[in-house]
Structures are given as C-alpha cells and as structure tokens.
Specification:
By secondary structure, the protein is α/β, with parallel strands linked by helices. It contains 13 helices and 16 strands. A 6-stranded antiparallel sheet has the order 10-11-12-13-9-14. Strands 6-2-1-7-16 form a 5-stranded parallel sheet, with helices on both faces.
Length: 446
C-alpha cells in the first residue's frame, strides 16, 4: 500500500505511476471537509493561479521537461493537451475541464482509492511504523499540524513557510565589461561574488524607479508582520534615499577596476549552483510586480541584457531545504519511508511539481519491487531539477522552475547562445533516453 497525502499535481502523478505498476494507492485529500485559503472546488489537480503549463516548444526547457514526463507515464500533460485552449506558444488549459478529467481518471482507477479527510501526524506515524511508504505532496498550503510534524521529521531549520526569493539570472547574460568579481576586502575566493557597481547618477535613478514601482498586494492569509525580518528592497528604499547603499547595497570593501575607486553603491551576485551558470541577486527580496520588476532591475549596471530565470517573490509558501533534508530519492534522510513530492521539494510551477510526483512514484515502485531506482543523468531536464534539489552550495535555498541555467554547459563552448542551448538539448535527450531504458520503460522516445 502506498499512501499519498495531497490530491494536487504531484499527488495525482505519483498515484498514477504507482497504480499503473500494480500497487494499491490511497490518496488523502482534505477538501471539501477542510478547505485551504486558496482553493474552492473539491476536484483534484485544481489550477489555483495561472492556467498555463508554459511553453509547448520542444526546444525549450519546459518543452523538454514535458516530453520527459510524457515518456515516464504522465497523466497531467496528456490531459492538458486534451483540454487545451488557445495560449500562443504555451500549453494553456480549460481549468474546469482539466480538473474534472483528472478527478474522473483517478477516481475510476481500480488501484486507487480517495479518502476525503484531513491527514494527521498520528496517521503518518502509524503508516511509517508499519514500514509502508508515505508521500507528502501537500503543496504550498500544507495544513499547520502536518507542517509542524514535517518540520520535526526533517529539522525545524529546514522547513520554510514563506518564500523570500531574490531574483536569479543566467550567468552568460551578464555584462562582464561592467560587472567585476571580488569578495569584500578580498576575503574568500576571488569569484565568490560578482559586483554590479553604481555611480551616483545610476543609483539615484534606480532608487527613484524602485520606490515608484507597483507591488503585489498581500493575500488575506499572508501576515505582513513577517516582513520585519526580511523587508523588500523597495520598502527599505522608501525609508530613505540612501538606505540601500548603507545597507543591502553597501560598497565597502570593494573596488571597481574601471575607476580604481569604491563604487557609490554595489549590488552583489552570488552563485546559485556549483557550475556557476546561475547567479542570485544578494539581499534583493522584493514584492514588485513581475513586469515592472524586470524593468527596474535591468537598470542595475551590468544587468541591462540580463535574462531572469526567476523573479523575486515574498509570499506564503511551504517547502523543504531539500539538499539538507532529503536524499537522492526525495526521501527524508532522517525518516526512511517518508517521501516528499511536488512543490514541497523546492521546485516551482505546475509542471515541475507534477514532474517530481512522477519521479517519486518511480522511486517507490522500484523500492517495493526490491530494486534501486536509477537516478536521472545530470544532462536531462529531470537530472537538472534534481541537481538543484541536491546542490549543497552555500546559498539561500529557494524554489526553482526549469530553465536553461539548470542544464549543464556543453563540453564544447560555442560563443553563440543558440548553439549552446542546442547542444544542451542534444545532451538532455540522449541522457534521458539512456535513463528511460534503465528504468525499463517502453514509452516512445522523446
């Protein structure tokens, strides 16, 4: 018996994989007995926000991930195609027809039962004591009791209840003629940090635009007192024009090689992964709306052509510091048999959450069949996401969606961005096909 808590994207995908392998599955979904602050119907796999599953273009990171998911037996992606609506290059779906179809498929599967009740820590303890696998796929609005229990299992310091995510950029989109590598006072390795140096005029223009930028309003269930510990940069700037350059953007211990002098202010970038293909903007938490956020941040010296793979957010969320708390099978390092799937793992987005549900499903099937599941190669989309969840680089771990920066750079290093990306895709497809064979699946090639 496999027990899955949560009937969202990750939960239904995990259940589908396990049930199609002949395993009995029970999904616990507390709606409609107990509702969340964001959901309204009681259907499974409800789309709460956008109705888009990102790009359908097979030559994009999102397209590659969806292709891999279909080859691994996804329920969500084919159902999305069946109930698609016009969305340009994106796979957009009719949210009502989509959720109705997913619910029907799950309810009618002979190996799946649904229990409409709130899952409790006592129930979790009983299942784990019996040596049965338990999957938590409860998403960003995990109930308080279960969230507290999960924190106890994984380590209180490894479970976050809010996203305070700084923006992240692709390394090869940075202007290195302006940005320079230096740690403050030359402490640590020389390229630990990159620095975007402001002169006075650039800083004044940036702060003016920052303070005027439109912000995302808080939801009713989000407590604004939280921000006292991690204020958005626009709120800091509003306290005084020079607040940022004496705080988050202080230039002390730095010297701009172009001028030989300390900058007026400096925004620092920190590597987001081992390969240094991604950099996060240090101490740049923000509630600016995404459109204007990009415009304002591109005013930072050296970021005019930056490609943002993740924009800043501060909102209610629940996710684990997976590199510290989970093993390579997305199983709790401290509590064998307890698996985590979906957004709880530290991925961002419908598709990525569903993808982690599929991965956990295959890991459990292999475990219960007495085999060790082969891990996805670093080169494919699955391997790139798992690398993010396993990367112990010193950083503020935050949720990430699939993007070019997560894929490893090719051994060849062509100057053209298009050529580099084409080589990444070739490597991803070859790596995935090899992994699919090791999983002993007979699905169509990607």
């Amino acid at each position: 018996m496999v027990t899955i808590v949560g009937g969202g994207f990750a939960g239904v995908e995990c259940a589908w994989v396990c049930a199609n392998a002949g395993l009995p599955v029970t999904i616990y979904e507390m709606r409609p007995v107990k509702m969340t602050p964001a959901h309204t119907p009681d259907r499974l796999a409800e789309l709460v926000c956008s109705n888009s599953f990102k790009s359908q273009d097979p030559d994009t990171p999102a397209g590659q991930l969806k292709s891999e998911m279909v080859a691994l037996g996804s329920l969500v992606i084919p159902t999305g195609h069946k109930h698609s609506v016009p969305g340009g290059s994106a796979l957009a779906v009719d949210r009502n027809l989509f959720a109705h179809e997913i619910t029907h498929q799950i309810e009618s599967h002979p190996n799946i039962s649904i229990s409409r009740e709130e899952f409790t820590p006592d129930m979790a303890e009983e299942i784990l004591a019996q040596g049965k696998p338990l999957v938590l796929a409860t998403g960003p609005l995990t109930s308080q009791d279960l969230g507290n229990w999960l924190a106890d299992q994984t380590g209180q310091e490894y479970l976050y209840f809010y996203d305070t995510v700084a923006p992240t950029v692709e390394a090869d989109s940075l202007d290195r003629s302006i940005i320079f590598a230096q740690s403050r006072y030359d402490k640590g390795e020389g390229d630990d940090y990159l620095n975007c140096p402001f002169n006075k005029e650039e800083y004044d223009a940036f702060v003016t635009a920052l303070v005027a930028a439109e912000r995302v309003p808080l939801k009713d269930f989000e407590d604004p007192k939280y921000f006292e510990g991690c204020k958005p940069i626009e709120e800091i700037a509003q306290k005084g024009h020079d607040s940022l350059r004496f705080g988050n953007f202080k230039p002390v211990g730095l010297r701009d090689p172009r001028t030989g002098r300390r900058p007026w202010a400096a925004l620092q970038l920190r590597p987001e992964n081992r390969e240094k293909t991604l950099y996060s903007l240090v101490a740049c938490q923000t509630r600016m709306k995404w459109g204007v956020q990009t415009q304002v941040l591109k005013m930072v010296p050296g970021l005019a052509e930056a490609e943002f793979v993740r924009l800043g957010v501060i909102h209610r969320n629940t996710y684990i510091n997976s590199p510290r708390a989970l093993n390579e099978f997305l199983e709790s390092s401290a509590r064998p048999g307890l698996y985590v799937a979906g957004q709880l793992t530290g991925v961002e987005g419908y598709v990525e959450s569903a993808a982690m549900g599929i991965l956990v499903g295959h890991n459990i099937v292999h475990r219960l069949q007495g085999r060790v599941a082969p891990l996805p190669p670093r080169s494919c989309a699955y391997g790139s996401l798992l690398s993010h969840l396993r990367d112990e680089t010193e950083r503020e771990f935050a949720p990430m969606n699939i993007n070019w920066g997560l894929f490893p750079d090719p051994e060849e290093n062509p100057k053209s961005k298009a050529e580099r990306r084409a080589l990444k895709l070739l490597s991803a497809r070859a790596g995935f096909e090899d992994w699919r064979t090791k999983l002993q699946l007979t699905s169509t090639k990607v």
